[in-house]
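cron nightly-structures :: item 1 of 1
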Amino acid sequence: MQPYKRVLLKISGEMLAGSGPMGIDPSTLNYIAEEIVAVHQQGAQVAVVVGGGNFIRGEMLSTQAGIDRTTADQMGMMGTVINSLALQSAVERQGVPVRVQSAIQVNQVAESFIKRRAVRHLEKGRVVVFAAGTGNPYFSTDTAAVLRALEVSADVLIKATKVDGIYDKDPRKFDDAVKFSTVGYTEAITKRLAVMDQTAFTMCREHQLPIIVLDLNVKNAMVQALTGNSIGTLVAGE
Protein backbone atom coordinates (compact mmCIF):
# COMPACT_ATOMS: atom_id res chain seq x y z
CA MET A 1 0.00 0.00 0.00
CA GLN A 2 1.35 3.40 -0.97
CA PRO A 3 1.80 5.43 2.24
CA TYR A 4 1.91 8.85 0.60
CA LYS A 5 -0.82 10.12 -1.71
CA ARG A 6 0.23 13.77 -2.07
CA VAL A 7 3.91 14.66 -2.02
CA LEU A 8 5.96 17.80 -2.29
CA LEU A 9 9.41 17.45 -3.82
CA LYS A 10 12.07 20.00 -2.92
CA ILE A 11 14.86 20.21 -5.48
CA SER A 12 17.79 22.60 -5.19
CA GLY A 13 18.70 24.83 -8.08
CA GLU A 14 22.25 23.50 -7.91
CA MET A 15 20.94 20.06 -8.88
CA LEU A 16 19.83 21.45 -12.24
CA ALA A 17 23.35 22.63 -13.01
CA GLY A 18 24.57 19.03 -13.07
CA SER A 19 28.36 18.94 -12.93
CA GLY A 20 28.60 22.55 -14.08
CA PRO A 21 28.99 25.55 -11.80
CA MET A 22 25.95 27.48 -13.02
CA GLY A 23 22.90 27.39 -15.28
CA ILE A 24 20.85 24.40 -16.42
CA ASP A 25 22.40 21.21 -17.74
CA PRO A 26 20.00 19.73 -20.35
CA SER A 27 20.71 16.08 -19.55
CA THR A 28 20.29 16.69 -15.82
CA LEU A 29 17.06 18.59 -16.42
CA ASN A 30 15.65 15.70 -18.44
CA TYR A 31 16.76 13.18 -15.81
CA ILE A 32 15.03 15.13 -13.02
CA ALA A 33 11.90 15.41 -15.16
CA GLU A 34 11.94 11.62 -15.63
CA GLU A 35 12.17 11.13 -11.87
CA ILE A 36 9.22 13.49 -11.30
CA VAL A 37 7.18 11.69 -13.95
CA ALA A 38 8.02 8.33 -12.34
CA VAL A 39 6.58 9.56 -9.04
CA HIS A 40 3.48 10.86 -10.84
CA GLN A 41 3.01 7.50 -12.55
CA GLN A 42 2.76 5.85 -9.14
CA GLY A 43 -0.56 7.65 -8.79
CA ALA A 44 0.68 10.30 -6.38
CA GLN A 45 -0.31 13.93 -6.59
CA VAL A 46 2.96 15.79 -7.08
CA ALA A 47 3.97 19.34 -6.20
CA VAL A 48 7.51 20.67 -6.62
CA VAL A 49 9.51 23.54 -5.15
CA VAL A 50 12.78 24.29 -6.92
CA GLY A 51 15.54 26.60 -5.73
CA GLY A 52 17.47 29.14 -7.75
CA GLY A 53 21.03 28.64 -6.55
CA ASN A 54 22.24 27.62 -10.01
CA PHE A 55 21.71 31.26 -11.01
CA ILE A 56 21.81 33.42 -7.90
CA ARG A 57 22.05 32.99 -4.13
CA GLY A 58 20.65 36.14 -2.59
CA GLU A 59 22.53 36.01 0.71
CA MET A 60 25.87 35.45 -1.03
CA LEU A 61 25.23 38.17 -3.60
CA SER A 62 24.33 40.60 -0.85
CA THR A 63 27.43 39.78 1.19
CA GLN A 64 29.96 39.67 -1.64
CA ALA A 65 28.62 42.27 -4.05
CA GLY A 66 27.02 44.65 -1.57
CA ILE A 67 23.61 44.43 -3.22
CA ASP A 68 20.71 45.21 -0.92
CA ARG A 69 19.56 41.91 0.59
CA THR A 70 15.93 42.38 -0.38
CA THR A 71 16.91 43.10 -3.97
CA ALA A 72 19.33 40.16 -4.04
CA ASP A 73 16.66 37.79 -2.74
CA GLN A 74 14.21 39.09 -5.34
CA MET A 75 16.81 38.30 -8.01
CA GLY A 76 17.03 34.80 -6.57
CA MET A 77 13.24 34.47 -6.84
CA MET A 78 13.50 35.20 -10.55
CA GLY A 79 16.05 32.40 -10.81
CA THR A 80 13.51 29.96 -9.37
CA VAL A 81 10.98 31.10 -11.97
CA ILE A 82 13.46 30.25 -14.75
CA ASN A 83 14.05 26.81 -13.24
CA SER A 84 10.33 26.20 -12.78
CA LEU A 85 9.59 27.00 -16.41
CA ALA A 86 12.40 24.66 -17.49
CA LEU A 87 10.96 21.85 -15.36
CA GLN A 88 7.48 22.52 -16.71
CA SER A 89 8.68 22.13 -20.28
CA ALA A 90 10.78 19.03 -19.54
CA VAL A 91 7.99 17.22 -17.67
CA GLU A 92 5.34 18.13 -20.24
CA ARG A 93 7.52 16.71 -23.02
CA GLN A 94 6.95 13.38 -21.29
CA GLY A 95 3.19 13.75 -21.46
CA VAL A 96 2.38 14.96 -17.95
CA PRO A 97 0.57 18.32 -17.61
CA VAL A 98 2.25 20.92 -15.41
CA ARG A 99 1.19 24.25 -13.93
CA VAL A 100 3.67 26.78 -12.57
CA GLN A 101 2.41 28.98 -9.74
CA SER A 102 4.54 31.91 -8.65
CA ALA A 103 4.63 33.79 -5.35
CA ILE A 104 5.47 36.97 -7.28
CA GLN A 105 3.53 38.47 -10.16
CA VAL A 106 4.77 37.10 -13.50
CA ASN A 107 1.39 36.61 -15.09
CA GLN A 108 2.65 36.29 -18.65
CA VAL A 109 4.58 33.13 -17.84
CA ALA A 110 3.00 31.62 -14.71
CA GLU A 111 -0.13 31.65 -12.58
CA SER A 112 -0.11 33.47 -9.28
CA PHE A 113 -0.12 31.15 -6.28
CA ILE A 114 -3.65 30.42 -5.12
CA LYS A 115 -4.02 27.53 -2.71
CA ARG A 116 -7.42 26.33 -3.93
CA ARG A 117 -6.33 26.42 -7.55
CA ALA A 118 -3.13 24.53 -6.71
CA VAL A 119 -5.07 21.80 -4.91
CA ARG A 120 -7.51 21.55 -7.82
CA HIS A 121 -4.62 21.10 -10.26
CA LEU A 122 -3.24 18.31 -8.07
CA GLU A 123 -6.63 16.61 -7.89
CA LYS A 124 -6.82 16.70 -11.69
CA GLY A 125 -3.49 14.90 -11.99
CA ARG A 126 -1.34 17.88 -12.91
CA VAL A 127 2.11 18.44 -11.47
CA VAL A 128 2.30 21.84 -9.78
CA VAL A 129 5.63 23.67 -9.61
CA PHE A 130 5.79 26.46 -7.03
CA ALA A 131 8.16 29.27 -8.04
CA ALA A 132 9.61 32.35 -6.32
CA GLY A 133 9.87 30.86 -2.85
CA THR A 134 7.51 32.51 -0.39
CA GLY A 135 7.67 35.80 -2.33
CA ASN A 136 9.47 37.39 0.61
CA PRO A 137 13.15 38.14 1.18
CA TYR A 138 15.13 36.41 3.97
CA PHE A 139 13.21 33.13 3.57
CA SER A 140 14.88 30.12 1.98
CA THR A 141 13.26 27.84 -0.58
CA ASP A 142 13.43 25.12 2.10
CA THR A 143 11.04 27.20 4.16
CA ALA A 144 8.94 27.83 1.05
CA ALA A 145 8.78 24.08 0.43
CA VAL A 146 7.50 23.42 3.94
CA LEU A 147 4.98 26.27 3.69
CA ARG A 148 3.59 25.04 0.36
CA ALA A 149 3.52 21.43 1.59
CA LEU A 150 1.42 22.49 4.57
CA GLU A 151 -0.84 24.69 2.46
CA VAL A 152 -1.71 21.90 0.02
CA SER A 153 -1.86 19.26 2.80
CA ALA A 154 0.98 17.14 1.45
CA ASP A 155 1.55 13.84 3.24
CA VAL A 156 5.34 14.12 3.04
CA LEU A 157 8.11 16.46 1.94
CA ILE A 158 10.86 14.75 -0.06
CA LYS A 159 14.08 16.73 -0.13
CA ALA A 160 16.13 15.53 -3.09
CA THR A 161 19.83 16.30 -2.66
CA LYS A 162 23.26 15.04 -3.73
CA VAL A 163 23.69 13.09 -0.47
CA ASP A 164 21.89 9.85 0.41
CA GLY A 165 20.49 11.06 3.70
CA ILE A 166 21.40 12.96 6.85
CA TYR A 167 24.77 12.38 8.55
CA ASP A 168 26.21 13.54 11.85
CA LYS A 169 28.87 15.39 9.81
CA ASP A 170 29.68 16.00 6.16
CA PRO A 171 30.34 12.55 4.60
CA ARG A 172 32.27 14.20 1.76
CA LYS A 173 34.84 15.45 4.26
CA PHE A 174 34.81 12.81 7.01
CA ASP A 175 35.17 9.08 6.40
CA ASP A 176 33.74 8.29 9.83
CA ALA A 177 30.49 10.20 9.23
CA VAL A 178 27.48 8.24 10.50
CA LYS A 179 24.21 8.20 8.58
CA PHE A 180 20.83 8.42 10.33
CA SER A 181 18.11 6.13 9.00
CA THR A 182 15.60 8.09 11.07
CA VAL A 183 15.94 11.21 13.19
CA GLY A 184 13.48 13.21 15.26
CA TYR A 185 12.70 16.85 14.59
CA THR A 186 14.11 18.04 17.91
CA GLU A 187 17.35 16.12 17.45
CA ALA A 188 17.75 17.52 13.92
CA ILE A 189 17.24 21.03 15.28
CA THR A 190 19.42 20.77 18.39
CA LYS A 191 22.27 19.10 16.49
CA ARG A 192 21.85 21.65 13.68
CA LEU A 193 22.01 18.92 11.07
CA ALA A 194 22.71 20.91 7.92
CA VAL A 195 20.10 19.64 5.49
CA MET A 196 17.30 22.16 5.93
CA ASP A 197 17.41 25.50 7.67
CA GLN A 198 16.18 25.75 11.23
CA THR A 199 13.01 27.66 10.33
CA ALA A 200 11.97 24.87 7.96
CA PHE A 201 12.74 22.13 10.50
CA THR A 202 10.81 23.98 13.20
CA MET A 203 7.75 24.34 10.98
CA CYS A 204 7.85 20.62 10.18
CA ARG A 205 8.05 19.77 13.87
CA GLU A 206 5.18 22.06 14.78
CA HIS A 207 2.90 20.55 12.14
CA GLN A 208 4.29 16.99 12.20
CA LEU A 209 5.18 17.03 8.51
CA PRO A 210 7.53 14.10 7.76
CA ILE A 211 10.63 14.77 5.65
CA ILE A 212 12.56 12.23 3.60
CA VAL A 213 16.07 13.28 2.59
CA LEU A 214 17.54 11.26 -0.27
CA ASP A 215 20.00 11.28 -3.14
CA LEU A 216 18.27 12.36 -6.35
CA ASN A 217 21.10 10.86 -8.40
CA VAL A 218 19.97 7.37 -7.39
CA LYS A 219 17.56 6.22 -10.08
CA ASN A 220 13.98 5.87 -8.81
CA ALA A 221 14.97 6.97 -5.30
CA MET A 222 11.85 9.10 -4.99
CA VAL A 223 9.64 6.24 -6.17
CA GLN A 224 11.20 3.96 -3.56
CA ALA A 225 10.53 6.54 -0.86
CA LEU A 226 6.99 7.03 -2.11
CA THR A 227 6.21 3.32 -1.95
CA GLY A 228 7.48 2.96 1.60
CA ASN A 229 10.91 1.44 0.99
CA SER A 230 13.66 2.39 3.42
CA ILE A 231 15.84 4.89 1.60
CA GLY A 232 17.59 8.06 2.67
CA THR A 233 16.74 9.50 6.08
CA LEU A 234 13.26 9.96 7.51
CA VAL A 235 12.77 12.96 9.79
CA ALA A 236 9.69 12.48 11.95
CA GLY A 237 8.59 12.26 15.56
CA GLU A 238 10.53 13.39 18.60
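cron nightly-structures :: done
The first helix runs from residue 13 to 16.
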